Amino acid sequence: MVSPRSFIRGHRPRQRWLWAVPFGFTLLFLFLLFTNSPVHTVSSLRGPDPPASLPVAKASSAEPSRNGSSTYLRADQLTDPMSGRPSTTDYVALEDPYDHPQLWTSVQCTGSRLNRSCIFDNFYYVPSEEKFHIVLPASSRIRSAPYAGRPVEVAKDVVLSGPYDGSVVTEASVRALIDGCSDFFMGDVDYEPTGNRFEPIIHIFDSPLDAQMWVMYHTTTGATFRPGLTVYGFALYMHNVGHALYDGIYPMFISMLRFGYGAADVNVLFKMVYNGVLKPGMHVIGDDIAPVFGGGTYTHLDDLTDPLYRFQRVIVGSRRMAHRSFNTYSTLPGSYTYENALWYFSRRLQSRYGLIDSKTAMDPAAEIKPGVRDGTCRGVITDNKRFDAADRKMFYELIDKLKDEGVCDFTFVDWKKYSFEEQLELFTNSDVYVSGVGTGITRAHLTRPGGAVVNLGELEKFGTPERVQISYRDVQFAAGAPYLQALYYPAKLWNVYGRLQPEAVELIVRQAVDRVKTGWTLPRPLEDGISIVGEAMAKYCRASPSDCEDLESEFNVDDRPDQDDPWCSLCMWPDYIGLDTMWRADTTCEWYDKTRQCKLNYALYDSCRSPDHLAFDA
């Protein structure tokens, strides 16, 4: 006998399609939700993520004064405002910029193909992939506007004819737009241990729903929203103050300047490199400096653990903009060009630590007041790992002598005895800065305007087989500062004696003090501040611009990766040119099991090189 219950169960109609009804209602609900939501992203499920008010972009070039001239030297007169200035800002134009404004990515880039700077709005990041993502509608187009030192205002700025003629976007065209924009100063080079390259994944969708479904694929609760203006880069060796400042923060700052954000508070996002010294979880000097310099939040990229992030606005661009981005002018990138980057970097760093007036620090029309303040000369001699006990004894005796004579009040900076903030204060209030090469001289640019920097150089051993030569490495921090004089301990004395001579050190320090007290006309012409290596480069480039271009490409490993040996960039300084076995005619260097020689017009360079720029077999 069959029970009534089993009978009913056994004879129920098999309408298998009914499972699709709730699924269909779910899709319909999501479609109506997305197409009518004021936020237009999956984040609507948990409430809107209101965008923050972005800082107002201000171009770093001041307006001319009313009479067309100025009775004083302004910050924006330190460099040529047209030197290196790009002609356009190229951008992705949305067909309707007000349609789904918090879904689609907008992109705009400026600068040359060798050091591109870009802004991304609604920039997505997927931590599990370690990749950024660009999300675009298929109807968007790529256009160009005149470069104005600020982000493009699509509704107002003129559209220019040119290579970006308004064609509908493709993955290839967007890739070409951002080509040359990298989070790493060496570019997208395979250099241990850089991790993934900066290659955003580009998505082009036919509809907002398609884009929103892509978001749902990664997270059902909505992308984690990071509001405000963020600057992103790759930090190399953040445990070292020199690398943190000038290979990490400084390159990103140039991109900030290019878009008018030099004075703005920014969130700092760093990709970190871990090695034998720097390990995950360690707190290093770069972690202290970055949030103060930025003024907003500070985050390591590998600390982002949610499935998907959406950044309101991100500035990216570090390629060929660092201390280690060599050029034939012996300057820091951006320092003698329209960005005037070294001046503004110095002022921002000093103002963020409360050492100068923050209201005028970044003002392009601010007056530059050179000369000894209050009639009292102050100076620093910074310690250096290349100095020995005899050198330090010489420096202390010289400091006492100059103070007793009332010439100048010097402080010997033993790094262990001064905090980073105390070091900055000493440098900011100094008229003369003395040190050898390396980290010891990197903050020379903080010296007061009208001051002088003495680079003592070093006798360096290098190469295989090993050779000895005079080196003035890190000249960029003085040669690249148009508001400072640069003096160099004579190479001939290094060649003859093999170490610093007290009488010669005293003489060059007194010369620096005399220049500061006597005064000199700012800005300093670039050629008046370069070392004997810089002079050789200048002669070489004037004699053969094509050879000069080849040499500068070899300095930067990612310029021509199919033509140049990367170790010609990774393992060199300009001081080695013509002397190291990799950079000499008829010689080679065995490095990583490979015979290497860098390309150079050896005969021409030897004719340009100073007779005092020598190397000796060790």
TrEMBL record:
Q: Compositional bias (Polar residues) at which positions?
A: 62-72
Q: Which InterPro entries match?
A: Glyco_transf_61_cat (IPR049625)
Q: Which GO terms describe its molecular function?
A: glycosyltransferase activity
- Which parts of the sequence belong to the Glycosyltransferase 61 catalytic domain? 395-454
Domain of life according to the entry: Eukaryota
Region annotation Disordered: where it falls in the sequence? 45-91
Which named protein is this? Glycosyltransferase 61 catalytic domain-containing protein
